[in-house]
Design a protein that fits this description.
213 residues; NADH Oxidase; 14% strand; binds flavin mononucleotide
Length: 213
C-alpha cells in the first residue's frame, strides 16, 4: 500500500532519502505527476530551459549502473565508506548497507536526469538555481505519492561523459542532477536536521535572530 500524504508540511518533513526499492515498476501515471510538478518550479525569467530525461531502457540503465559504480568509488574515498560487517546492526551500518544496495542495484531502477541549458551571462550557480527547485518539486511529488527517491551524484565524476554520450546531451546543456525513483522497501520517515535556528541570522553574518520562532 503506497504511503500517500497530502499535507505539504508532512510531505516536506518526511521526504527522506530512500535507497532501497522493491521490484515493482514505477508507473507512467505517478512518474508523470512527479515530472509535471517539476515543471511547476520557478526558473529565472520563467525560461524553463530544462529537460528531464527518464532513464529506464535496459541500455540506459546499464549506463546508469556504470556511472553509479564510478561515483561509489569517489564516495567511498570522500566519506571513508566501507561495506559493513554482516553482524554489524548499528544505525551507521544499516545506512551504509542501504547506500551500497542502491549503488549495487543502480541498473535495476528508473531514474531521471535533470538537464539545464546554459544561458549567456549566467553563472553555473545561477543556472543551478533555475533547475534545483524543479528537482525538489519532483522529490516532493514523489513523496506525496508514496514513492521513494534518492538524489545522486552519478551524473558527476566519471558518470558525466558516460551519460552525456549515451543520451546525446548537447554541449551547451549542463547535467544538473540525477534522481533514482521507485517504490520504497522501507518506510518514509522524518528528515534529520540541525535545529533550523542554527542556520538563521538577522541582518549580519554572526547575529542570531532570537525573535523569529
Ligand atoms: C547533490 C546531492 C548528491 C547526492 N548524491 C548521492 C549519491 O551519490 N548517493 C547517495 O546514496 N546519496 C546521495 N545523496 C543523498 C544525500 O546523502 C542525502 O540527501 C542526505 O544524506 C540527507 O539525507 P535525507 O535526504 O534522508 O534527509 C545526494 C544528495 C544531494 C543533495
Amino acid at each position: 500500500m503506497a504511503d500517500l500524504v497530502a499535507d505539504v508540511w508532512e510531505v516536506m518533513s518526511t521526504a527522506r532519502t530512500i535507497r532501497r526499492f522493491t521490484d515493482e515498476p514505477v508507473g507512467d501515471d505517478v512518474l508523470g505527476r512527479c515530472l509535471e510538478a517539476a515543471t511547476w518550479a520557478p526558473s529565472g525569467a520563467n525560461a524553463q530551459a530544462w529537460r528531464f530525461v527518464v532513464l529506464r531502457s535496459p541500455e540506459q540503465r546499464a549506463v546508469v549502473a556504470q556511472a553509479a559504480s564510478q561515483a561509489l568509488t569517489v564516495i567511498e574515498e570522500a566519506y571513508s565508506l566501507t561495506r559493513p560487517a554482516a553482524d554489524d546492526d548499528s544505525h551507521r551500518a544499516r545506512n551504509d548497507r542501504a547506500t551500497y544496495e542502491l549503488h549495487d542495484r543502480a541498473g535495476e531502477f528508473t531514474s531521471v536526469l535533470f538537464v539545464q541549458r546554459r544561458l549567456r551571462l549566467a553563472s553555473d550557480m545561477l543556472l543551478g538555481g533555475s533547475i534545483f527547485p524543479a528537482m525538489q518539486n519532483f522529490l516532493l511529488a514523489a513523496r506525496a505519492q508514496g514513492l521513494g527517491a534518492c538524489l545522486t551524484s552519478w551524473a558527476s565524476y566519471g558518470g558525466e561523459p558516460l551519460l552525456r554520450d549515451a543520451i546525446g546531451v548537447p554541449e551547451d546543456w549542463m547535467l544538473a542532477g540525477h534522481v533514482v525513483v521507485g517504490w520504497p522497501k522501507g518506510r518514509h520517515g522524518p528528515v534529520r536536521r540541525r535545529p533550523w535556528q542554527t542556520a538563521v541570522n538577522a541582518d549580519r553574518w554572526d547575529a542570531p535572530a532570537p525573535g523569529i520562532t
